[in-house]
Amino acid sequence: MYRYDEFDQSLVDARVAEFRGQVARRLTGDITEDEFKPLRLMNGLYLQLHAYMLRVAIPYGTFNSRQMHMLAEISRKYDKGYGHFTTRQNIQYNWLKLDDVPDLLADLASVEMHAIQTSGNCIRNTTSDQYAGAAADEIEDPRPTCEIIRQWSTFHPEFSFLPRKFKIAVTGAPKDRAAVQIHDIGIQIVENNKGEVGYSIFVGGGLGRTPMIGKHIRAFLPRQDLLAYLEAIVRVYNMLGRRDNIYKARIKILVHETSAAEFTRLVEEEFEKIDKTNLLALPDEEIARISKYFAPPDFEELAPSPAALLDAIDQDRDFALWVKANVTPHKVQGYSIVNVSLKPIGGVPGDITADQMDGVAELAREYSFDEIRATHEQNLVLPHVRETDLYAIWQRLVELELATANIGLVSDMIACPGLDYCNLANARSIPVAQLISERFAELERQHNIGDLKIKISGCINACGHHHVGHIGILGVDRKGEEYYQITLGGSADENTRLGDITGPSFPYDKVVDAVETVVNTYVDIRTPGESFLQTYARVGLAPFKETLYAAA
Amino acid sequence: MSKPHRKAKGPQVLTANRLVDGDVVYWRDETTWVANLSEARVFENEDELSKAEADAQAQVKADKIIDPYAFGVDLSSGTVAPASMRELIRAKGPSIRLDLGKQAEAA
Amino acid sequence: MPLLKDGRFVEDQWQRLEEHEIVPRDGAVIVDLERWQVERETLKERTAPLGLLLLPGQSPEEVAEDLPRFDLIALSFPAFKDGRAYSYARILRERLGYKGELRAVGEVLQDQLFFMVRVGFDAFEVNTRTSEEDFAAEMAKFPAVYQPSSCGETTVFARRHVGLAQCAAE
After folding, report:
1. Spelled out in words, what is the top-level CATH class assigned to the domain C3-139?
2. How close A223 gets to chain C, by Cα (Å)?
3. Which of A68, A174, A306, C156 registers the highest number of CB atoms within 10 A of its CB?
């Protein structure tokens, strides 16, 4: 994985010093809250319901054991011994004091981490496929591209006061695990008919109040033009994006209001005018230098499906279920990708204790070439694990209470922090997730139901991606009471689709029943082997609506 | 449930977050913000609340607190109970982690 | 508003004309885009220095042809969060080759000065809390930059490859 050189380190260190000065000026009253707020947000620091919350970037979701140990230490030293992984490959701490944050950032910088641009109206942490470098279907590892974007977007002098936040995601595989079509810019690595690798570009996706799927504006962008093209898109947005209404300020609204065709023309025109002879044209040497950091580790030549593994699967039903749900094929024979579920039955989706962080860090060092990934579905991944080690790893995960065999299943939900922590929320998300998880606690039942993604947001800002959940749940405030609107048929992969609203919303104490009704209806009407989304595509909303509102 | 506009008549409490640590605090008098809702001043008189709000704005300027606002409370049970889930959670802590927040300190 | 130019407080030699004010014969004046468009012919006959104020929404590309006439362009930040002028500044400097004074006016905060210098501003109407020392400290804040921009520093991408850095310096 990438290692900072002197330049990267000096910049992150300089940022810590800058923020230390800004905090001091705030506490002495040299700057007002109105002036300080955008500065702290650009360092990932929010004021939430109970305290300050810091969002730490895990760029494109890749980190190592030393960094994970530091995340654990930080949670003990400055917070309450746990952290929360988010849908954008970040980790959040919920209980910070303002005057501790400069020291915390210095600790992060000591392990090449930062909270730069994890909030604010700037270019945010670039996210990617959690299986990058390990997936069998990959055209190219997306992380060198992500790292180049991370550096280019860091302290970008022109793009630090955009109309609104700006999120970029990159996938290197045709199977989209990074939800690129719901990002401000989605980048898919593609190969053209001459065998050259380049980029396919989507713009203007996003959820929130006005959900939109990204428009495809460029089928093939040569690699060296990446930054010039990104600069063209963001410049057009910076100059023309709406600033009169915060709800209409995202690039998706600009693309929608100008039309995708006209927006594309504006971008291409700007792209033509940008001086591509200057250093925006990435030097080949630099692409090569960064790519080298992501060279595959020294994989051994291994036989596939070792006998000991097959025996263990035969003899241990719990292990077998875990392998089935949580282990994914690796591109190298004899290796696997291990998904570490942060969705224990009845737990808080995405939460992890300091001891668990240390445990995962040790597993990564011992078994996965020291690599860990954070996923946008709020889980962790050990990307390069020998199949012969799977049983040992599973036993250790069981001890850590991180072995729930539910990846991709009904209890593997995305949930935003909701009203339990968040200043913007209208309703709680986490307890709804916990109740659903407990309702479907039995793993055999979950496996029988099959692939099912439930996504829960506590307000219309949609941090829980409810629009693209197979079952989406949106918390709303109805005269001071928590109600939940249900959507069906959404999806965030290469066939991205926004869910359809079923009808009137359900009160807090009825929403779990409603979800179970949807699931039971699907199980009743599915044909053999048909997934929830396939059934939904076949039958539509009507049968679900009928059972959901039958009593009413 | 972004900050409720003050529209409800009836008893109100004035709240904010402390600048230095973000902790939830409640107005008791011109010199004191308290951490516990039970010790907060309950306003049943609009003029008195307006005066306290002016004082709170002065304390914002003095960089002690941020984002002050008033919210409705229910006194019918004999204690000061927030009228909304949001304020209940601010007063106690996360509903899903009873070991955290003010509810844990109180225990 | 105190005026910082090239890191020093200087006396403002320019008069910004309000809508109702008549253009004086002599003296350096800054006019807005509307006046420039309406009174272009008479303004052209003046020999005293002329400056132009552009508001967000008024792209410098609209006045590309007229740029040689202006000794100063002021770009407005009606609120510090409104970042359109950062793009305008780069277009002026990098695309349109504007070499005169580029002045940031409006809500110009200390913490934004580094970015403003990088996109090509050289003069700033700052608030009274900002000192020359603050300006110097802001300029020294970051030891390197990742992006090419108007002030021509060599980027980190290039500095890593010495041969390229030399090319860029030439």
Report:
1. alpha beta
2. 16
3. A68
